[in-house]
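Appendix B, example 12.
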Amino acid sequence: MHSTRVALRVLRYGSYYMKLPKGFSVNSMHAGIKKKGYDLGLISCPDGARAVGLFTKNVNPSYSITVSKKNISQRIYAVLAHSGNANCFTKAEDLKSTEDLCKAVAKNLGITPSNVLIASTGIIGRAMPFALIEKKIPALCRKPDDNFALFAQSIRTTDTFSKISTKTISGKNGPVRIAGCAKGAGMIQPDMATMLAFVLIDADVSRPVLKKIGSSAVARSFNSISVDGCMSTNDCIFFLSSGKAEIGNSPAAIRRLERAIEEVCVDLAKMIVSDGEGATKTARILISGAYSQRQAQQAFRAISSSVLFRSALFGENPNWGRIVAALGAVGIALKENKFKVTAGSLKERNVTIKVHLGLGTHTWQGWCSDITPRYVHINAGYS
């Protein structure tokens, strides 16, 4: 078993430095999947990590999703990620070719293929350059550069910037670190998005606890954003815990970790919305007065997925009738004397819109971008 000792890695991006969570290494390169820029990345955990994954609900998933869903319950030693090709809906034999990429990673790291996850993003239906990628894997596995910023670049498609968020909290015997990165700018709807996300955690927590924390964090972040209401074939988020830092088992310690992971996920989700294809505005939608939390979430989804509402947002048009129509379309009946909408100036880049349903006491919040002519232009030519 590959078990090279991993020192505390330095993660650098932007204008400052931080330490990568203990037990993880990263590497990235330009493999040639895209014409230019980094497009192939590797996360390695030489001593293994507990893993939890949340995946797209699209019933025509990429081959990478199919393989990772099969492997996610195993102890994970590596994650291969790439951009420039969705690895989806080409030919059935490409499922085996995807498994062969995991075998190539496993061979170079001295592990088994079931210990490897894979994530892909790019254009659907385009032939995947498997031979090209497999040729690059030995160099990718040899010597990590541990530059998380470059890894974040390697998963970008139409993104205009890399999305990274980090958090450090106190553990039993020192710091506990969380580092997350994501990609996403289009095909974003409230059921994750066209997004890949990776959250590295060195806290020692059980897989059931990690699953509970991850599911809650995703519900309040990646499942609470919308750019265009379209669901991808490739969405996935992986939470990986190396177990190298003691957090403790007390309810207070777990809550502290849960809050930190949620904050990282919310940061990344908001970056995705702000980078929405062609977007000029980000709207924070606050739902209150719902009969149940489920209804509050439903109300957010209805409003944030409405093309008419988001077109009005782009036009700085306070046409609250679009909100009433969107809510009625999903069966939320309103009373004229109890329903209320308030908003700040629609001329600002970041707008808060408060929607009070007048039906109960439950709340929810989420974020969406406007729909613009630039969005149509980008997607008209995306091929």
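The first helix runs from residue 63 to 71. Confidence is low (pLDDT under 50) at residues 1-16.
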